[in-house]
Amino acid sequence: MNSTNKFLSDYIYLAEASYADFSGLSYSDIASVRERIENTGDKENSKPEAFATLVTDNYQVKAHYTDREGNGESSFSGTLFQNKETGAYVKAISKSNTNRQARPFR
Protein backbone atom coordinates (compact mmCIF):
# COMPACT_ATOMS: atom_id res chain seq x y z
CA MET A 1 0.00 0.00 0.00
CA ASN A 2 1.48 3.36 -0.95
CA SER A 3 1.72 6.12 1.66
CA THR A 4 -1.20 8.13 0.26
CA ASN A 5 -3.53 5.15 0.55
CA LYS A 6 -2.19 4.35 4.03
CA PHE A 7 -2.94 7.87 5.25
CA LEU A 8 -6.39 7.78 3.68
CA SER A 9 -7.24 4.47 5.34
CA ASP A 10 -5.96 5.82 8.68
CA TYR A 11 -8.19 8.89 8.38
CA ILE A 12 -11.21 6.72 7.66
CA TYR A 13 -10.77 4.52 10.70
CA LEU A 14 -9.86 7.46 12.95
CA ALA A 15 -13.04 9.23 11.87
CA GLU A 16 -14.99 6.18 13.00
CA ALA A 17 -13.00 5.84 16.24
CA SER A 18 -13.68 9.49 17.08
CA TYR A 19 -17.29 8.60 17.88
CA ALA A 20 -16.08 6.94 21.08
CA ASP A 21 -16.40 9.05 24.21
CA PHE A 22 -12.95 9.10 25.79
CA SER A 23 -14.04 11.54 28.53
CA GLY A 24 -12.63 10.76 31.95
CA LEU A 25 -10.09 8.22 30.70
CA SER A 26 -6.37 8.12 31.18
CA TYR A 27 -5.36 8.08 27.51
CA SER A 28 -2.36 5.90 28.35
CA ASP A 29 -4.73 3.15 29.58
CA ILE A 30 -4.89 1.28 26.27
CA ALA A 31 -7.37 -1.34 27.54
CA SER A 32 -9.88 1.37 28.51
CA VAL A 33 -9.42 3.22 25.22
CA ARG A 34 -10.05 -0.04 23.33
CA GLU A 35 -13.14 -0.75 25.42
CA ARG A 36 -14.59 2.69 24.67
CA ILE A 37 -13.98 2.22 20.94
CA GLU A 38 -15.58 -1.25 20.98
CA ASN A 39 -18.64 -0.04 22.90
CA THR A 40 -19.42 2.99 20.74
CA GLY A 41 -23.08 2.99 19.75
CA ASP A 42 -25.64 0.30 20.41
CA LYS A 43 -25.03 -3.46 20.18
CA GLU A 44 -25.79 -3.52 16.44
CA ASN A 45 -23.23 -0.75 15.79
CA SER A 46 -20.52 -1.77 18.27
CA LYS A 47 -17.01 -2.09 16.89
CA PRO A 48 -15.08 -5.38 16.76
CA GLU A 49 -12.11 -5.88 19.04
CA ALA A 50 -9.82 -6.04 15.98
CA PHE A 51 -10.88 -2.52 14.98
CA ALA A 52 -10.10 -1.12 18.44
CA THR A 53 -6.74 -2.91 18.38
CA LEU A 54 -5.94 -1.46 14.93
CA VAL A 55 -6.55 2.05 16.25
CA THR A 56 -4.61 1.67 19.51
CA ASP A 57 -1.70 -0.20 17.91
CA ASN A 58 -1.10 2.72 15.53
CA TYR A 59 -2.38 5.81 17.37
CA GLN A 60 -2.59 7.22 20.87
CA VAL A 61 -5.43 9.45 22.02
CA LYS A 62 -3.83 12.74 23.09
CA ALA A 63 -6.93 14.88 23.77
CA HIS A 64 -10.69 14.58 23.60
CA TYR A 65 -13.57 17.02 23.91
CA THR A 66 -17.29 16.39 23.84
CA ASP A 67 -20.31 18.55 24.58
CA ARG A 68 -22.76 15.65 24.57
CA GLU A 69 -23.73 16.47 28.14
CA GLY A 70 -26.06 19.16 29.40
CA ASN A 71 -29.01 21.04 27.96
CA GLY A 72 -27.18 22.52 24.96
CA GLU A 73 -26.21 19.13 23.57
CA SER A 74 -25.00 19.40 19.97
CA SER A 75 -23.30 15.99 19.61
CA PHE A 76 -19.99 17.72 18.81
CA SER A 77 -16.92 15.68 19.63
CA GLY A 78 -13.27 16.12 18.77
CA THR A 79 -10.36 13.77 19.35
CA LEU A 80 -6.67 14.38 18.76
CA PHE A 81 -4.73 11.24 17.85
CA GLN A 82 -0.95 10.88 17.55
CA ASN A 83 0.65 8.38 15.19
CA LYS A 84 2.93 6.15 17.28
CA GLU A 85 5.41 5.64 14.45
CA THR A 86 5.76 9.12 12.95
CA GLY A 87 4.58 11.36 15.79
CA ALA A 88 2.16 13.11 13.40
CA TYR A 89 -1.13 14.37 14.81
CA VAL A 90 -4.59 13.83 13.33
CA LYS A 91 -7.68 15.60 14.63
CA ALA A 92 -10.95 13.79 14.11
CA ILE A 93 -14.16 15.77 14.46
CA SER A 94 -17.63 14.31 14.87
CA LYS A 95 -20.31 16.95 14.76
CA SER A 96 -23.32 14.68 14.43
CA ASN A 97 -24.22 11.08 13.82
CA THR A 98 -24.53 11.69 10.08
CA ASN A 99 -21.52 13.88 9.26
CA ARG A 100 -18.06 12.45 9.92
CA GLN A 101 -14.74 14.09 9.18
CA ALA A 102 -11.05 13.52 9.93
CA ARG A 103 -8.30 15.91 8.90
CA PRO A 104 -4.55 15.92 9.42
CA PHE A 105 -3.42 18.37 12.07
CA ARG A 106 -0.72 20.65 10.67
Quickly list its features.
4 strands, 106 residues, alpha+beta, four-stranded antiparallel sheet
Describe this structure in words.
The protein is an alpha+beta fold. The protein has one domain (3-104). It has 3 helices and 4 strands; from the N terminus they run αααββββ. It has helices spanning 3-17, 30-38, 49-58, and strands at residues 59-66, 77-83, 89-94, 100-104. Strands 1-2-3-4 form a 4-stranded antiparallel β-sheet. Helix 2 packs across helix 3 (49-58). The radius of gyration is 13 Å and the shape is globular.
Short description:
This protein has 106 residues and is of the alpha+beta class.
Topology of helices and strands:
Layout: H1 3-17, H2 30-38, H3 49-58, E1 59-66, E2 77-83, E3 89-94, E4 100-104
Antiparallel strand pairs: 1-2, 2-3, 3-4
Helix pairs in contact: 2-3
The run of helices and strands is HHHEEEE
Q: Give the rounded overall mean pLDDT.
A: 82
Per DSSP E runs of 2 or more residues, the count of β-strands stands at 4
Euclidean distance between termini CA atoms? 23 Å
Strand line-up in the sheet with most strands = 1-2-3-4
Quickly count the helices.
3
Number of domains: 1
Helix/strand class: alpha+beta
Which band does the percent of strand residues land in? 15-25%
Model regions low in confidence, pLDDT < 50 over at least 5 residues:
none
User: What is the alpha-carbon Rg in Å?
Assistant: 13 Å
Sheet of most strands: 4 strands, antiparallel
Query: Percent helix among the residues?
Result: 25-40%
Shape: globular
